[in-house]
Structure to design on (166 residues):
């Protein structure tokens, strides 16, 4: 006499659910690992000497850009880097700050932070936070502090009243 066959539950639906959950977890972990991390690299500071709000490093050193470095063209290389230090971030890191920042790859393959399309540098002649000794220095272009907000020339001085009536 043979025993009646006992129906066994199908393991397939459980396996399918477990495999689906495992696959989704793997995708999530992979996406999280490959997503760009971000790092705060600049802050704003009112600069009394310049009369403007400028970008600075987190330690308060004024950041500058060189007027001729546009569209990924680098002029500050070689000996220029002895005076001007590029603001760099590790590859794959998105720079953050109070304004929109981007990056560009330097000729040596390092990633430099940009503001309004211009690479940012600190000046080795600025010793204390808030100094802007690099403003207006001319070499192959002109160095300017990275000014934030609406930067317009000051209004003209009002005309003086003549000392005598017409």
């Amino acid at each position: 006499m043979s025993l009646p066959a006992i129906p066994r539950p199908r393991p397939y639906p459980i396996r399918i659910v477990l495999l689906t959950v495992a696959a989704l977890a793997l995708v999530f972990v992979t996406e999280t690992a490959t997503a760009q991390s971000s790092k705060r690299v600049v802050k704003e500071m009112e600069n009394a000497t310049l009369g403007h709000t400028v970008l600075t490093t987190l330690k308060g050193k004024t950041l500058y850009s060189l007027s001729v470095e546009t569209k990924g063209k680098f002029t500050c290389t070689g000996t220029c880097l002895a005076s001007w230090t590029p603001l760099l971030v590790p590859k794959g890191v998105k720079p953050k700050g109070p304004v929109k920042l981007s990056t560009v790859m330097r000729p040596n393959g390092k990633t430099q932070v940009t503001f309004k399309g211009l690479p940012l540098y600190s000046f080795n002649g600025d010793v204390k936070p808030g100094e802007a000794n690099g403003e207006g220095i001319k070499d192959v272009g002109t160095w300017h502090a990275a000014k934030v907000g609406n930067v317009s020339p000051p209004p003209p001085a009002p005309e003086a009243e003549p000392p005598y009536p017409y």
Q: What stands out?
A: The first strand starts at residue 37 and ends at 40.
